[in-house]
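Translate structure to sequence.
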């Protein structure tokens, strides 16, 4: 049975387009900073990004990440984005 019309959608904070959450990358705030959720059920604050580095760059440029995860911009800019966004290329 396929329940049509009931696909949970998540919004990308970079381009604000909505996609199925399986198609997106979720990043969560942990004590060590932002990390990819990798399907784990983290309880911290998180956000979704399209699988493409363009949306990450857009989100960084417009300073959209800080308010969502409640982190200071300076801490966010210190994050190793190459590591975090390993799946974003
Ligand atoms: Zn996007």
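Result:
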């Amino acid at each position: 049975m396929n329940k049509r019309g009931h696909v949970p959608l998540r919004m990308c904070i970079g381009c604000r387009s909505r996609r199925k959450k399986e198609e997106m990358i979720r990043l969560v705030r942990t004590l060590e900073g932002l990390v990819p959720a990798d399907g784990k059920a983290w309880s911290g604050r998180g956000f979704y990004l399209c699988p493409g580095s363009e949306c990450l760059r857009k989100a960084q440029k417009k300073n959209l990440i800080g308010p969502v995860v409640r982190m200071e911009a300076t801490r966010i800019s210190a994050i190793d984005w190459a590591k975090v966004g390993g799946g974003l290329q």
